[in-house]
Design goal:
The structure is a homodimer. By secondary structure, the first copy, chain A, is mostly helical. Chain A has a domain of 136 residues: Tetracycline Repressor, domain 2 (Orthogonal Bundle). Chain A contains nine helices and no strands. Chain A is elongated and about 60 Å long. Chain A starts with 7 loop residues before the first helix and ends in a 9-residue tail after the last helix. Chains A and B meet through helix 7 and helix 9 of A and helix 7 and helix 9 of B. The structure holds a DNA duplex.
DNA sequence: GACCCAAACTAACAACCGTTAGTTTACTGA
DNA sequence: TCAGTAAACTAACGGTTGTTAGTTTGGGTC
């Protein structure tokens, strides 16, 4: 631990995530990363196994965090609208506390090697759970009877892109953002819809 | 022109866009691209100036296409809801006829060199026009009085991600998709909202 | 049949890539 | 005071990168 309460390894991974967000995994060299943490490239290997290992750390831990969140939400007894609000809050919270990592999760997952299948499996399950929640909401007439996959896609891509947008809105608190965003995504923008 | 009605240069750029979508600009080598068009890397340079030149061709032409579309929409006399539907249709149409290029536009713009400032300027103006349309819709009480930037962000990120999703829905016609998507984005998913 | 030229080729360049080996530095606890 | 150790360093490796130079190929035109 250093004065900021994080190990050197954590600092390297965090810095890497920041660089990956700016240029993407492939365009960031180990020498770029080393310069950003003020050491030489070879010294990085005292702390990490490989460049690939850094990407794996960033992406898999985030993906598993989403999976755990979804597990809790889908097992809750709440109505669909509240489950959707919980999903929005899940994305907002994770994105706020790991904005840089979200960029890698979105854009660099295909550069995973050993862990690619594991990641794809987590993502597929997440999307299936999401679409099931929407379908049961349609059955319960809680949400409009539109194509469930279009609804899921529309919400999920907005949530997945939050990392691009949250840094520009530092004034907006997490809960406030989750509420605003939930309103727009769930009630739409048409003023004739009833406030939920 | 060859039998498919496209020049070798066009074929190279199209193939490059496909590869860029799969792995990103930086991870695609000129040898990868050459193999995909069945020639040697050096032969590519009989048709294109540089790797950077390919990226520029893909991104700038698309960005200018969006700019022209937005110009037409914002100068139309239509009501806000219809302008928004026109924006949805603009994205759906461009994405259908250039799915691969949309990936580069979204993910690889930061690797533009000389043309980066030009691209950023086009994007900034597009987003400003978009948010102005939403603001005037709120004033006219055509759309709900929520944060205009959250509304714009929510719609635009969905539209920008269409390239990820359209290939999986080949059965869905463009107009049909534009209508479905417009309904979800404009009327939301809450069944209590009035159908527009 | 000689010529042209677009478009392919082979070979190679200098720079850069991730990574390893071996060494030095600076702090810690006995 | 000195051995131990984490973490930095220098140097270099084999491979890959975008690109250039120079050459060959093959179909169309006079």
């Amino acid at each position: 631990m250093n004065s900021t309460g994080q190990t050197r390894k954590e600092e390297i991974i965090k810095t890497a995530a920041k660089l990956f967000k700016e240029k993407g995994y492939s365009a960031v060299t180990m020498r770029d990363l080393a310069k950003a943490v003020n050491i030489r490239a070879a010294s990085l290997y005292n702390h990490i196994d490989s460049k690939q290992d850094i990407l794996k750390s960033i992406i898999i831990s985030l993906a598993e965090e989403f999976t755990r969140g979804m597990e809790t939400i889908k097992n809750s007894e709440d109505v669909t609208i509240n489950k959707l609000r919980a999903i929005v809050a899940l994305h907002v919270n994770i994105t706020i506390h790991n904005t840089y990592g979200m960029a890698s999760l979105n854009n660099d997952w295909m550069h995973l090697e050993d862990q690619l299948d594991h990641y794809l499996s987590l993502r597929k399950n997440y999307e299936q759970d999401f679409v099931e929640i929407i379908k049961s909401g349609i059955e319960a007439q809680e949400i409009r009877d539109s194509n469930p996959e279009i609804i899921m896609f529309s919400i999920l891509t907005t949530l997945r892109s939050l990392y691009l947008w949250i840094p520009k809105k530092e004034d907006l608190k997490g809960q406030e953002l989750a509420k605003n965003l939930g309103d727009v995504l769930i009630n739409g923008i048409n003023p004739k819809s009833t406030k939920a």
